[in-house]
Specification:
Blueprint: H1 2-51, E1 59-63, H2 69-78, H3 85-94, E2 102-106, H4 112-121, E3 126-130, H5 137-145, H6 160-163, E4 174-178, H7 183-204, H8 215-228, H9 232-248, H10 255-262, H11 303-310, E5 319-322, E6 328-331, H12 334-351
Antiparallel strand pairs: 1-2, 3-4, 5-6
Helix pairs in contact: 2-3, 3-4, 8-9, 8-11, 9-11
Length: about 350
């Protein structure tokens, strides 16, 4: 009897439990199989879209107004920048389904996914424009002409607010613009930044140090400071010298203003020395002959020079001269200044023994 019961249990186990276990096992195996296929497919798609590249070297690619995803896909496929236009369109769809016009710099090794992202986000090729502090408008125009990636000229009859910019209207800085941007647009960008700087100062309602009376005075003196020293650590001291002279009714006697007059506003002697005879030039910008500030700025200035004028050092200095090491020696009295000046002449003679210096 017991054996029959055991036999019946065995039959039930074999007929009921084992098939269920086997079915579960098969399901697990099938699930693992499907998972493996999915992982493999994902790896293939990821490699095809995000890793594989047919871009052998950096290339420029233009998308024009009116170009569609399909037309861009055909062109980019014909230029062999992707391995398949279908793959590219799939990547674009995942990236938002659109392309933006512009000139693009596609780097070597770029995948279809990366290229699609550039086109979808509008990551167009840019050029870095560096406008150094202390340049005049004429020098800045020459600088912009040297950038072959920009278009157009900087001399014109339209865009009046840009064409009529004067020294002091431009904020020297580093600007990133799209390749092919007009030179006038860059000039306008720098003009707007200086306008913002001016408006910010006006909103603060801060009075400039006496005897300066307004923005033009601040920028004019800042332009002289900017041209006198490249060292930001000296700017506040140089500003204090000129302010002290203005308060005493002394002429500024700033060499950069004479150079500005001699070069018709270009601001560069191109290696020629400034001689005593040059100090007699008849010009409102000649601060050796005229009292007070020149009528307008002689260069375009950065924030350090502006801050130096607004927050000058508290000194009693009235004179300064170059020290031969990129800086200056300052003096409160004329006798000390003459000694410092004699030292500077000796340094110049040692550096250039062939030249006969008549510099002031």
């Amino acid at each position: 009897m017991a054996e029959d019961k055991n036999h019946l249990f065995a039959n039930w186990f074999l007929s009921a439990i084992i098939p269920k276990v086997m079915r579960r096992r098969k399901k697990r195996i099938f699930a693992r199989y499907l998972f493996g296929i999915a992982v493999a497919m994902f790896a293939v798609i990821y490699y095809a879209l995000c890793v594989r590249s047919t871009v052998r070297e950096s290339i420029t690619f233009d998308i024009n107004s009116g170009d569609t995803v399909a037309s861009v896909a055909r062109r980019i496929d014909s230029e062999k920048l992707v391995f398949s236009d279908m793959a590219f369109k799939f990547a674009i769809r995942l990236r938002g389904g659109r392309v933006q016009k512009g000139e693009y710099e596609i780097p070597r090794g770029a995948s279809a996914w990366k290229i699609a992202g550039m086109f979808a986000r509008g990551n167009i090729a840019t050029v870095k424009i560096v406008i150094p502090e202390g340049l005049t408008i004429l020098q800045i125009k020459d600088l912009l002409r040297s950038y072959s990636s920009l278009e157009g000229d900087v001399d014109c009859n339209d865009w009046r607010r840009v064409c009529d910019v004067a020294d002091g209207d431009i904020f020297p800085d580093t600007y990133h613009v799209a390749r092919g941007t007009s030179r006038l647009a860059v000039l306008d960008l720098a003009r707007k930044k200086m306008e913002e700087t001016k408006n910010k100062w006006l909103r603060m309602r801060r009075n400039p140090p006496a005897p300066l009376t307004g923005w033009n005075d601040v920028i004019t003196l800042a332009s002289i400071v900017q041209r006198e020293t490249p060292r930001t650590s000296e700017m506040k001291i140089v500003a204090s010298v000129y302010l002290n002279r203005l308060r005493r009714g002394m002429r500024l006697q700033a060499d950069p203003t004479v150079i500005y007059a001699l070069t018709d506003g270009y601001g560069d002697m191109r290696g020629a020395p400034l001689l005593r005879g040059h100090l007699k030039i008849d010009s409102p910008y000649n601060t050796y002959r005229n009292n007070g500030l020149p009528p307008a700025p002689i260069a375009n200035v950065g924030s350090h020079a502006i801050r130096a004028v607004l927050e000058p050092a508290d000194t009693k200095y009235l004179y300064f001269v170059a020290d031969g090491r990129g800086g200056h020696k300052f003096a409160t009295d004329y006798e000390t200044h003459l000694k410092n000046h004699a030292d500077w002449r000796e340094i110049k003679k040692m550096n250039n023994p062939e030249l006969n210096f008549e510099n002031p």
